[in-house]
Structures are given as structure tokens and as C-alpha cells.
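User: Structure please.
Assistant: Input sequence and predicted structure:
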Amino acid sequence: MRKFFGTDGVRGRVGEFPMTPDFAMKLGWAAGKVLGAEGVSEVLIGKDTRASGYMLESALEAGLSAAGVDIALVGPLPTPAVAYLATTFRADAGMVISASHNPFYDNGIKLFTQSGQKLTDAQEHEIERWLERAFNEGMACVSSERLGKARRIEDAAGRYIEYCKSHFLGRQSLNGMKIVLDCANGAAYKVGPAVYRELGAEVVAMHAEPNGVNINHHCGATDLTSLRAAVIEQRADLGVALDGDADRLMMVDHTGAVVDGDELLFLLAREAWHEGYTGGVVGTQMSNMGLERALAELDIPFRRAKVGDRYVMEQLNATGWRLGGESSGHLLSLDHASTGDAIIASVRVLSAMVRQGLSLHVAKQGMRKLPQTLINVCYQASGGREPLESEAVKASVREVEAQLGSRGRVLLRKSGTEPLVRVMVEADVAELANRCAQQIAAALAKPAA
């Protein structure tokens, strides 16, 4: 088990361990020791718009320098931009200071290899071993002549904008299209509007005035209320919502209806299939069954991974497939980006719409989502027994699965942080999904015999 690293780097509330300047400096030093031993000589560092990013950036810079590793600073840019620019500017690895969709008072640190992939479990374990050494024995600084040097890159945003635009295929443009873009007051507040405008669209940018504390606040990919209203008010063709570090995408059609990660993944897969893609698609345990059915109609194989884009990537690497994603909007299109990139994913969706001459509202109708019921059930472990081991619960699940047959599915997930079991039931009829979920929830809520 990793002590500090989660599924997406290190994350926490700023000022509380581990999101302190002391920890960040030691993390920079430990990462420098591990990556330096593997031949890394320079690390590129980006961040989102949180006020705490300045503090953590300076601490990481000090730690890396003490380990003898050079630093290239690009300032506020999307997480996927850092993954791309690490290669473009010939850095050997990348770091992003961001807590993605979390509130401003949280922050995090993500690490990438030069190819844009997240570090392996083995690399993270080794970094944690050096972290323990830093806390127990202190940080041994290299000699003065070997200290890492820092440089600031000025044209990083321009290069990333051009890279995103290059994924709009064909000779057509977005001329005549009106897009409302919710930047979540995050890392894409400058580059996001520029990409769509330079492709020819009329762009109405909203939540694009970060002040250090308003990132993700009632906006972005996790709160589409204001975007839906703006699309209708502006009579726009569609809306695009990014999260704080622009690795998560949600869209809204001209009627104000949400187009989520499952539907967007289907649109990407259908376009890839049209272009000759012969691989499959990786979703997660939470991916809507409607996605699986729609892909089956195109003879596109589908697999489910554990929840988390890290696990989707693992399945893609294992199968050699190139497309995957989550309902929440993390989308991986490895023929176009080495990591989840919301702007590039949206450009690919827009490119497909223009090629087909379809609105987003019509294009998404190729997939029909199944109604889904989610219920969180509190439990108390009795005699050390887990709630999912209860014979009554198992019997209830078997009964529900028999009722559903091929019409739906059941998923039970135990929370890793709270005494909760998350019950999810999908069915082709909403009433059936709700009734089955309630039946399982009732069995979970009963005290163990």
C-alpha cells in the first residue's frame, strides 16, 4: 500500500499534512533522487490557479534543486498540457500542482514521465521510501556546483494551443458555431477560449477570471447549472465545461441537456471506428450499460476497469486499445494525447460533429443511457464481518439479478473512507431500477443476524 500517493498523486487540504511546504520540498527532493537515478536531469512544473500553487511550486523547486535536478516552470496550464510540454521542451519528467476538481483549499501534486504517463507503482513506492528517509534523517543536499537550476518557459501556452488545434481534422472549421465555455476559473482560463476562437467559433467564456480561491466554485465540469442556463440564454450551439486542471470534460447541447463522459466516449469511439479504429474501449464499473450496448452495435469490444483513470490506463496498456474513460468526464484517446485531455477530447467531438453535419443533440442519440439509481447505505460492521459478506445481502443481489436478466445490472461498492456501501442498479425502466436498488439497500440496512 502506498502511504502518500493515491490514484492521482498526493492530495490534501493546504496547510495540513501532507499539503505543507515542508512535505512538498521533501517530495521534490525524494522524486529528484529517484528520477535522477533513472537519468532524469530536468523536471517541468505546471500548476492551476489556486493561491497555494505559488507556495508549493517554490517548495518543490527547492527540493528538486537540492537533489541536483533542473526545473522548468510554465505557470498556470492544464495538467495534460504539462504532460505534452514535458516532451516538447525536452524535459525528462513533469509535475503538476493541482487538486483537479476539488475546492480551492485543497491542492495536490501529480508526477508524469516524459511520455505523459503517470509514474508506476514501483516508482511511487521508491519515492515514498526516500520520503521516509528525508523525514527520519533529513535531506542531504548535493554540492553547490551540482545544484539544479531553474528556468521559466514563456511560450508554453502558445505551443499547447497549436497542439490542441491540430486535432481538429479536415479542412473545415468551427465558423458559424457559438460555444459557451466554462473554464472553472482554472488552469485553462486563457488557453481554452483561444483554442476554440482560433478554430473559428464564437466563444462566450465564463468563469474565466481566477482569483486564487474561486476555482471550481459552483462552476466547471462538476457543477453545470450556470453553463446550462448560459447556453439557453445565449442561444448557443453547445456548451463545454472543464474542471480546474482541464483533464475532465462535460458538454451541454443546445437544449441545455447534459452530455456526460459516457456519451462523449461513445462519440469518440464512433468517430475512431469511422476512421478505421479496430480496437476496443475501456470504461469503468460505473460506466452506463447504454455505452456497452451502443458499442456492441458497432462490434466494438468493451471492458470495465476499477473506478479511476489510472485503472482505465492500465487496461488500455494491457489490451493495446486506445480509447477509454469515465462517466465523470476523464477521457483517454491515446492516438491524440498521452493522458486525459479535456480540450483535445472536445476538439475531437467537435470535429466529428462538423464532419457529420450534426448538432451535439442529434449526435448523442446514437447512444441511449439506461436509467440508473444510486443509494448510499450506512452500515455497522458486526463481529468483524463485512456487509457485503452477509448471506441476506448476497441473496437479495441474486434475486435482483434474476429479475433484471439482460435488462440491467447491479454494482455494490464499499466506500474506502466512510462506513458506506454504494448501491447502483441500472435497468431499461427507471421504476425497475429504483425498486431493485431499494430492495438491496433494505437488505444492507438490516442488522446482521
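The CA atoms of residues 79 and 112 lie 10 Å apart.
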